[in-house]
Amino acid sequence: MAHAAQVGLQDATSPIMEELITFHDHALMVIFLICFLVLYALFLTLTTKLTNTNISDAQEMETVWTILPAIILVLIALPSLRILYMTDEVNDPSLTIKSIGHQWYWTYEYTDYGGLIFNSYMLPPLFLEPGDLRLLDVDNRVVLPIETPIRMMITSQDVLHSWAVPTLGLKTDAIPGRLNQTTFTATRPGVYYGQCSEICGANHSFMPIVLELIPLKIFEMGPVFTL
Question: Among 16, 67, 112, 157, which is most buried by a count of CB atoms within 10 Å?
Fold first, then answer.
């Protein structure tokens, strides 16, 4: 999870997030190069004495500064489109979870486990145990296996919400009357936090999401849900 004074994105827990971090670093280097070039040109303009102020035709320069930005845009767009299509792929998920947004809590349905349904509320400060995170921990966590393709079906029962877990690279809107889906495959166990990322009312800040990812063998041993 994020920490104070953090510079950069959270550590990746899924292949999609690893791709997003790589693209972020790639785009950042392009921005650095552009900024350096512009600042260098400004520096030369301010410090160099112009020896010829009558130049009115520079077709070669105009050609370069027209083609070069186009090439830069292509270098940014291609990996961006690749990741965009990767996020839409659904490759035979092994488990399907339905998440329903409410004002202001989440309901989860394990459709492959006999319709197991439970609500997930934020823990009030009076109920926090030592080590729990204020405004982030919930009473019922979503327990899922790692190294398993998982499909999330996301919708809402009242207003717009957004189901987001940054470390997995997930952010999908929950829209009333519409069922959106996203998939992910977690690569390592742990407890990962997210929040509603769509302003949904007075208590928008109090809709945390907590995923507890465990090895598949432990998940298959039996009920691991604490309700």
Answer: 16
